[in-house]
Amino acid sequence: MTAPLTPPPPPNDHSSAQTPYQGPPVPPPAGAHEEPGPDGPGLRTELREAAVTTVAVTVCGALLGVLWWWLAPSVPLVGDLVDKSWVVYLKDSEGEQAIGVDGTFTLLGLGLGALSALVVFVLRRRGGVPIVVGLGVGGLLGSLLAWRLGVWLGPTGDVIAHAREAGRGTTFPAPLKLGAKGALLAWPIAALLVHLGLTSLFGPRDPEPYPYPHPGEPPKRL
Most buried one in 86, 148, 167, 194, CB count within 10 A? Predict the structure, then answer.
């Protein structure tokens, strides 16, 4: 008799023995997303919205210029003829009308800056750096437009010709002038600060991917 043949042992599967079981892929936590690339559609959309914001806020500078021309106090001047030459001087040398002109522009700029920030936040709540930059640049350009428009709408800058037209000893308004050029920054600064405050208080929040339900417990995946 011959002994029964013993079957050979199965070949060792080194790959399965050495590679641990990984399990199914774990989905990303809620709220996680991939950031678009520098040339992706997300960035293009934000840049387009920022350009629209800049243009819209700049155009609103025309409203600031009209309001400034309408609400700013008038600085009275008087013309006189001395040795056959016209001279112009302030009627009230201690008056504060010139300060009121700068103050009116500043207050209007602060108000329109806060209003523009509120409108931009409501329309584009998700925010973004391009939107904020467009808001600030638009506020500055709008202030420049308002300044030049108000000067153009105001009395003529040729005070000698205006004095001759008004007559000797007659009071006439001085040209609309912005003495403190720092008032041009009132609009963009107010817009940026108000937008930052609204974003920090009411802006969208990303959910916590690993919440702690109770103090001392390890984080749990959602």
Answer: 194
Q: Are 135 and 122 in contact (CB under 8 A)?
A: no
| pLDDT per position as a tens digit, 180-203 | 999 999 999 999 999 999 998 887
Residue-wise pLDDT tens digits, 77-121: 888 878 778 888 788 877 788 899 999 999 999 999 999 999 999
Q: What is the residue type of 11? A: P
CA distance 88 to 110: 34
Please spell the DSSP secondary structure of the chain, one letter per residue: --PPPPPPPPPP-HHHHHS----SPPPPPTT--PPP-TTSHHHHHHHHHHHHHHHHHHHTHHHHHHHHHHHSPP-EEEEEEETTEEEEEES-TT--HHHHHHHHHHHHHHHHHHHHHHHHHHH-TT--HHHHHHHHHHHHHHHHHHHHHHHHHSS-S-HHHHHHHH-TT-EEEPPP----GGGGGHHHHHHHHHHHHHHHHHS--PPPSS--SSTTPPP---
